[in-house]
Amino acid sequence: MVAVPERCGRSGPINLREACGLLEMPWPQAGRPAVPHESAARHVAGSALYIDDMPEPAGTLHIALGLSSEAHADITGLDLEAVRQAAGVVAVFTADDIPGVNDISATHSHDEPLLAQGRVSYHGQPVFAVAATSRLAARRAVAKARISYAALPAIIDIAAAQPGGVMVCAPMVLQRGDPAPGLAAATMRLGGEMRCGGQEHFYLEGQIALALPGEADEIIIHSSTQHPSEVQAMVAAVLGVARHAVIVEVRRMGGAFGGKETQGNLFASIAALVARATGRPAKIRPDRDDDFIITGKRHDFLLSYDAAFTEDGRIEAVAMQLAARCGFSADLSGPVTDRALFHADNAYFYPAVRLTSQPLRTNTPSNTAFRGFGGPQGMLAAERLMEEIAYATGQDPLDVRKANLYAPGRNVTPYHQTVSDLNGLALVEQLEASSDYRARRAAIRAFNAKSPVIRHGIALTPVKFGISFTATAFNQAGALVHIYTDGSVQVNHGGTEMGQGLHSKIIEVVARTLQVPQEAIRISATNTGKVPNTSATAASSGADLNGKAAEAAALTLKTRLIDFACRHYHLKPEQVRFTREGVVLGTSVLSFARLAQAAYGARVQLSATGFYATPDIHWDRASGKGQPFYYFAWGAAVSEVAIDTLTGEYRLLRVDILHDVGQSLHEAVDRGQIEGGFIQGMGWLTTEELVFDAKGRLATHAPSTYKIPACRDTPPDFRVALAQGLAHGAATIYGSKAVGEPPLMLAISVLHALGDAVASVADYRSCPRLDAPATPERVLAAVRRLKDSGLGP
Amino acid sequence: MRDAVRFMLGDELVRVSGISASLSVLDWLRGTARLTGTKEGCNEGDCGACTIVLVRPRHGRLDYRAVNACTLLVGMLDGAQVLTVEHLADGARLHMVQQAMVDAHGSQCGFCTPGFVMSLYARAKQPKSERVDAAEALAGNLCRCTGYAPIIRAAAMIDAHEAPDQWDRRSKETLARLEALHDGTTLCLGDGDTCFMAPASEDELAHLLVQHAGGKDAGRPTLVAGNTDVGLWINKKLMRLDPIFWLGGIDSLKQIAESNDHIEIGAGVTYSEAQAKLVGLFPETGALITRIGGVQVRNSGTVVGNIANGSPIGDMSPLLLAAGASLGLRRGEHRRKLALDEFFLSYGVQDRAPDEFITHVSVPRLKPGAVLKAWKISKRADQDISCVMMAVWLDYDGARINDIRLAFGGMAGVVCRARACEARLRGGPWTRQTLAAAQAQLREELQPISDMRASAGYRLDVACNLLERLYIETVERAPTRLPDASLA
């Protein structure tokens, strides 16, 4: 007998699928019975509400932004009269109309005005806002502005920024030992540079905010943000009100990927500004092209490396400099470039090492968080180094990688944290066997020897990714759980749902803790009025932090119910057990709902908060020492590609992934993160190319020119396995591991497989040194360079 | 003359009048009809989040087509049934296609999902024999979360389990209702400020164009067939177009006429409708056509429209230029024929008077011994604009090139023939030496630009290498094609 919440109004076992309005279909379910994403049925029916789908209150104003046409200039004239006179326009706002602080810097760097004042610092920077009765009217009115500028010298890219070296924040240095003597005395040494491009998030739902003015200074903001508490803080500062006057709510986002960690602040603040000034609801939803042009992206980097190694390819000393284009303001560039350094070792031990970051200020959009948060760029440097050493020593790059993996006695990172769970080698060897790597590599070489035009390539790369915010304070979370007297449970927590399945996982956590069916639990929209002072849903930490907080709240309630049951039914605590069949009370069983009802009757509080702070972590940036990460997530991937040496075009043929998610909270969600993260990473490294012209204008500002992977870019043979039986020393929620970001970096195997194919044209005697994104043009250029090197057959 | 557009929205007959000529179906659905399941992702026909299905009578049955609602004007719905994601569930029960997406875990953030559902739905409505590979059918839908793998698994589940749905059950009734809407009258839709006209015949179009000629630029009619390009002028450049003349009401322009030596593709024929015929004519170009836009674009966009807009990077023009195609044009009662070569005058300028329209493109069949090959090079394989497109018509007898036409897109301000290079090749032996000479000639003849898609140097290198590919494929016969990455 399965416990039935009374709200269902009937007894008998609950058919979970039926409860969700789902059909029983005859197709087989893969693996263990998988619970769908909590919103899946609404996603496919088109009934899941995003902000733009909400009915607009009467009188809603629509906002469009007037953008800078210059990369760096003083504003010498701002004539908005024609804008004000345009049809449908209700109000026009400039920096002078901001009642509070004209700053939305997420890191309190005071370098990011909401609206430019006197000077513009990048092409596309918002200068003014128009509120009109329709979105089209607002967009049309914007074009009528007359702004004059006096141009200033603009620094667009890393090459232009490096000589002056103006940085958006202090660079970081990680050093363990001194690499200089090792480099000077090396038997083998090499150095080089690698460029990797940035990446547009291309969340399918663009940035959006809807502000609803309330009485006095109160305001409610519906924002597509990963960080409601920060939006709350920004809006309060911009309006000059206390944070208690501002409520921010997020039901779901249509994708975010880091692009809504800080980038939503601008849109929410503008909407709030208009709503406050006009007393009318105000919505802003920039057109996709404006979204591209205004918002920051993944940082592009110039990675410089210098390494000493033994003749068998083992690293002795490493020095690296990681320079990043940060854009006009600091935003999160400090933490991003820090994390690049934290991952410039990837899974490899550097006996003596010095790593430095260079967060460069440029006159471009302010680059920001993007899945991996600098980690992918740091890892690229490590993997390029492995490739260089392999070619220099004439080995299979996999053997060089294996020789340098963290291992017992060789397990201290450049930031002096000891890697406790040494899963790298076991994972790599398991994948090497399961993917048949060696035999396939031999077959590819035989194929290439006979194929003049089409060449194949293969590569295996590992991932080790540090889990925790490196700003230690952010590693906290809160939750609020209510049990209603019909046995249904409402959960609220500080995390936001952007498609990653966080709510599905939290439901699973609470269902396990209280032993109630999943459909008895509902997660309500994330709301700053329910759980305050939250951290961004970022750093892959959403389930780790909020899951623990939700568990804590559920445990508090469970304890109260046990106490009540003991009192009420004269039992000892060990006689009360929560099971899926109901709450066992000595020799009888009571449904969860009846117990809740009884507890209510006895005036037991059925609402509780939960709180969690990650233990054991600390970090001192100044000394470059500490334990910034609670644990590491591990994974490895093998990719096989074919390239066309006449055009540089390529196809990804097969991918094998073995990834460590600990004890999965939700296998379908975790697999989805792995597959999706991999393809997104592949896009970054292959077809996604951001092109700024000499004047700092983004030339690739829509999907017509910026190419994220499409359906046929997914490999026809895609094998994903969850690693079993690996060490996991940290006490995470139900033994699970974070999975949001790490799989993205598995795609580095694609870049190196392309490199392997390219190297075939010079008989594998020269390192292909393929930069990213490896567009067909870059692949062809590498083919030509190697062919021209004279090393070919 | 009718002043209201009439269509079925799900099962309901709708009449809409008094709207702006350039109102998109997407904005109408989300704003007026409050059907917000259809999403706006890019507003330019590139992401598929706004995919809906249009149902029209065709050869006595209902034809289901996925299209992008963002580049579709409301007037273009005339006589169709519109199905959105809200119309699939039968009461509280999800449609089998939706259910497969749930069970395959095909949604994460869910924002692209309605578009995928509608593309999968339209695909499931095609007869099994005509159903294309799922990955091809979904090339016009972008997903940023899943990496597509579970969506492809959902497609396989759908293929394995079919059952008639509520729309199949009332297909006869729907067919009759839609046919009754086909009244042969001209539609004139407007809000007093702008006007959308759908002439019912070629004669009427010819007459209306002449009538509107001579007006100032602002009053000059914009001819629209699929609106896949003009839609961007409206959505992105915020251009005010008045009047808009839509060709979709003219049955005679939707014909493909065949004769012994050529076929004539009417100005209203979409890529999808022409695809089978073109592949039949030129078997080696099939892969190219499936890489023009996504399914949604090919279901709306027309072959002639791609020529008429004169884009230097359109993919049909180089193909048809190499094939030796010609155009039929009409101005009032005057008709003329023009070799396609002569149509493209310079960037943005074509040999067409403002009151003239293209009636069809005439494509000669291949003569025995000749072959037509076309290669498209782009950053992404699917739904991308070419950085280089080469089409070659070759009459090669195994030793000598008897004749050749070499056409390029993306290499100049217009699509163009490489005539000097052709001359180098024509009549000569087809050897590595000839190839080298032809490549050198090509480098002199073409002056491409650098832009966000590719550098000039890469474009030239690739153009030369494609000549080499032609040589390898026709002489040395080594494999030059990447493995087909379509998913089984």
Summarize this, please?
Chain A has 793 residues and is of the alpha+beta class. Helices cover 29% and strands 23% of the residues of chain A. In chain B, strands 2-1-5-3-4 form a five-stranded mixed β-sheet. In chain B, strands 10-11-16-12-13 form a five-stranded antiparallel β-sheet. A four-stranded mixed β-sheet of chain B has the order 6-7-9-8, with no helix packed on it.
Kindly describe this structure:
Chain A is of the alpha+beta class and 793 residues long. Among the domains of chain A are: 1-19 and 33-43, no CATH class; 422-467 and 630-793, Aldehyde Oxidoreductase, domain 4; 476-613, Aldehyde oxidase/xanthine dehydrogenase, molybdopterin binding domain (Aldehyde Oxidoreductase, domain 4), CATH 3.30.365.10. In chain A, strands 3-5-1-12-9-10-11-20 form an eight-stranded mixed β-sheet, with helices on both faces. In chain A, helix 11 (375-393) crosses helix 12 (397-404) and helix 15 packs parallel to helix 16. Chain A is globular and about 85 Å long. The N and C termini of chain A lie far apart (73 Å). Residues 1-21 and 28-33 of chain A have low confidence and may be disordered. With 488 residues, chain B is an alpha+beta fold. Among the domains of chain B are: 5-86 and 172-246, Ubiquitin-like (UB roll), CATH 3.10.20.30; 89-164, Orthogonal Bundle (DNA polymerase, domain 1), CATH 1.10.150.120; 370-476, CO dehydrogenase flavoprotein, C-terminal domain (Enolase-like, domain 1). Chain B is built from 18 helices and 20 strands. Chain B has helices spanning 25-32, 96-103, 113-124, 134-137, 149-160, 166-169, 171-181, 202-212, 230-235, 271-281, 286-289, 295-300, 303-308, 316-323, 340-343, 419-425, 432-445, 456-476; strands at 5-9, 12-16, 51-58, 61-68, 81-83, 187-190, 195-198, 222-224, 244-246, 256-258, 262-266, 326-331, 334-339, 344-346, 349-350, 357-364, 370-377, 388-396, 401-409, 416-417. In chain B, the strands form five sheets. Chain B has a five-stranded mixed β-sheet. Chain B has a five-stranded antiparallel β-sheet with strand order 10-11-16-12-13. Chain B has a four-stranded mixed β-sheet with strand order 6-7-9-8, with no helix packed on it. In chain B, helix 2 packs across helix 5. The termini of chain B are far apart. The model of chain B has no long low-confidence stretch (mean pLDDT 95). The interface between A and B is large, with 99 and 98 residues.
